[in-house]
Amino acid sequence: MHLSMWTYPWDIQDQGLAGTVADLRERAGLNTISLATSYHAGRFLQPRSPVGKAYFPEDGTVYFRPDERLWQDKEIRPLMAQNLAERGDMLAALVEQRALGGPRVSCWTVCLHNTRLGMLHPGHVTRNAFGNPNYYNLCPSSPAARDYVVTLVEDVTRNYKPDMLELESPNFMGFAHEYHHEKDGVGLNAEDDFLLSLCFCEHCLARASRDGVDGRAAREIVRRFIADLCEREIPERQFPDFPAAGIDAFRAWPDLHAFLTWRSEPVTSLIREIRQKADPATKIVLIDLKDGWLGGVDHAAVGGICDGLILCCYDMTPAEIGEVLAAGRRALPPGKFLGAGFRVFYPENRGAADLVARVEAAVAAGAEGINFYNYGLIPAKRLDWVRAAVTAIASKDGTT
Question: Is-contact 9 35, C-beta < 8 A?
Answer without folding.
Answer: yes
